[in-house]
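Researcher: Please translate sequence to structure tokens.
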Amino acid sequence: MSDILFVEYPKCSTCRRAKAWLDEHGIAYVDRRIVEEPPTASELAAWQPRSGLPLRRFFNTSGKVCREQGIKARLDDGLSNEEAFELLSANGMLVKRPILVGGDFVLVGFREPEWETALLENETRGQSPCLIRREVNGGGHVSKAAMARQMG
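Model: Translation complete:
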């Protein structure tokens, strides 16, 4: 059984739809707010290869902060992976969301067919999705310390 981390921006309509989908399917998760606790550079460096996506897909390139900082141009100019991970970890609003991290997958953005494959089809093959308790402190947020206790 693997734990699932749901990294979200609560005001984002896509994140709200993704969270509702998880809840409707009875999939437990640790909820982490991306602005208050952005992913660290080391987390992003571990997640990106597991996602199978190019690093560029971890950027919320259509978001206001990315546009203001000229992120697309910086990516086009050859921003190194290390620089990109540091940049993303400095401001959660730069990160594409939601991010769903499980034992054998990392999903960026909410595309229902991908989530069904990663979560529901595994369940039908006898592999259980995350079924952990949620240790909540204020509005559904789980602190890094609480997450570490649950995952470690």
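Researcher: Any highlights?
Model: Confidence is low (pLDDT under 50) at residues 124-152.
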